[in-house]
# Entry
Amino acid sequence: MAEAFTPAALSADKAQRYADLALEIASVLEGEPNLTARMATVSAMLRQAFEHFFWVGFYVVDETKAEELVVGPYQGTLGCLRIAFSRGVCGAAARERRIVIVEDVDAFPGHIACDSRSRSEIVLPVLDRAGQLIAVLDVDAEIPAAFDQVDAVGLERILKAQFSV
Ligand code: SME
# Structure
């Protein structure tokens, strides 16, 4: 019988998987300047690498509206189109320019349920070379408490390497 899936079962080799993935992403994206292509590729490769990533993708800062995110490249079920900086986990990460880990989405005030199957999530700010916020990366899982500091460090390294240099 297959072992039951738990985030803990993954954590032992999770840091190594992030390190390997960072190299693979860098190799695929080498020389590609287009931001949409970069975000789409990062989303797809993250989704392929971690099977419990139920939704993974970017909400980008909409330059035409004050303090509003609009959905960008993603993998998963239908995402909400727009999120104000004042709302949700994505809004909190954008507003406060910090990584937000939510172990139980029902316990996060103002959480936006684009898909009710989502149980936990992590959202990271994406900064450009000048330190300007350009997007957030949102990863959702159908299991509670799927994300920890290993995810935060692994994902942040990939985002810095791909969007901040
Ligand atoms: N849960 C997010 C919204 C985005 S989706 O889950 C794809 C939030 O509260 O900001």
Q: What stands out?
A: The beta strands are 55-61, 68-75, 82-84, 100-102, 120-127, 133-141. The chain has one domain: 8-163.
